[in-house]
Amino acid sequence: MRFKRATAMFTAFLLVLPTVPVSAEDNGKTEPETGGSYSKKHEVVYTTLDASGDQEEMYVVNNFTIEETGKIVDYGPYTSVQNLTDVTEIEHQEERVEMTAKEEEYYYQGNLEGKPLPWNINISYVLDGESMKPEELVGKDGKLKVSVDTTKNEKADESFFNNYLMQITMKLDSMIYENIQAPEGTIANAGKDRQVTFTVMPEKEGSFTMTADVTDLEMESIEFAAIPSSMSIDAPDIGGMRNDMGSLSNATAEINNGVGELKNGIAELNDGVANLYNGSEQFKSGIQGLSNGSSELVEGSASIHNALQQMNEAVASGSGDVNVSDITKMEDGLRQLSTGLNEVEKGLTNLKEQYGQAHQALTQSIEAIPEYQISEREIQALRESGANPEVVNKLIETYQAAQTAKGTFANVKEAYQAVGPALEQSAGSLNEMSTNLNTVADQIGTSMENLDIGESVEQLQEGLQSLLSKYGEFHSGLKEYTGGVDQLAGSYADIHSGIGGLTNGTSELENGATELHEGTSELASSTSDLPGQMDSEIEQMVEEYDKSDFEPTSFVSEKNKKVGSVQFVIKTESIKKDEEQEEAPKKEEEKSFWDRLLDLFR
């Protein structure tokens, strides 16, 4: 058996003998190595962190796409280097790395110490509200909260932070983790596990949380992958949205025009209410003056009635003690009273006309307020539209005040409508009383002209009785009228006070409408070019996130050229029980053909 194995080994040795490196020698001379070249260089930076995010180890796998085989040069402050392509020795002095590339793709590894990542990474853990170290979490149960924060590392080249997109991945065993919540991340199934992913955009710092209910806690490594955000971002097709924004802009302009018309209508309303208040003030003064003079009017009428009563009694007693001058004075008093009532009647008629005009202006102004109803949903949509909140609040308050004024007027409309007929009726009553007084005075005058006391005292007595009877009716009506005037004067004070409040309200409403129109004018001006503003914002956003013009540079050394890409692969330590902690397998060195051949016989 040993003989057969030795024979096979010797045969194999003879077969491969021409291929060993010494075959390159010719007459004891070695051909000098020529300079090689490469078209692109790629770097993948591998970094391990502890479970809290502190940096531990870092190495870089460098890949060259070879154009011409031969010696190539790279740079980096490596503590050690390792050929990952073949067994050719790599020369490493300070930051200069020389190697001989014989393949189309050449790889070597360089180990780094103290080289900072472009990001500061901090990971914290809270279990049932208590902050804990990672090693203290193993095997625990409860409510877990994991926070991951990434910030810019000022000690590193900022081009990576500004142009790289970072993806953070947590792989969670569904047998251990339940009720997983990640507000700013995405949660997906990965076989029997659940995978939580967060994304950090270029030039941004990240702050993320993951919460879950855990049982017998263990956690796999948290992985961070950072790659250049070099994809070109095209502006989205916003044709339909642009049309919508144009419609919104037009609608805002129409709202401004409508508010302008509303402001003008409210101004007319305020003017009408002011006229109404002035007319009401005159009516109040007149009716109050009439009420104040009512007692004197009734007393004067009572005196006339008593005088007539005494005259009638004197004539009836046959005493003949009749003073003709008293009757003449009574006639004059009646005519003066009639003239006074005529003046009051004219005042009431004039007041009725002014009140009618003011009431008509008020009615037109109130009816000019639109009757549309704005729902709470529409109001909320207006609040969320992005318009100036102060302007929106004024708009809502003005709308509510206008509707309140319209509703109040509707409630008191009948009372306002009843005032005109009441004034007309009062004026008619005064006119009738004045006419009756003139009639009585005429009768007295006629009686005095034709009266022959010596011939017929009986006729005088009959005339006085008739006059006394008619005047009694007049006096009773006068008392009822003055009572009504007193009652009207008392109740109209409240009406006048209400009109005063309405005047103040419409004045404030006009001021609010003016401010509202100023606000809607500003809103209409600022939204007049919404499509253009939207295009500008989108263009700015695309420019902010479009990194397609980014030219990658070496993470290791600025001396390195033709860098095609740089990627970062970062992992934290896992959190596991000691007995199950698996050591990371050592990277097996790439064996040469000769080593693999010798392994066949070992």
UniProtKB/TrEMBL annotation:
It comes from the Bacteria. Residues 1-24 form the signal peptide. Gene3D superfamilies: Methyl-accepting chemotaxis protein. SUPFAM superfamilies: Methyl-accepting chemotaxis protein (MCP) signaling domain. Keywords: Signal. Residues 574-602 are annotated as: Disordered. This is YhgE/Pip domain-containing protein. It comes from Halobacillus litoralis.
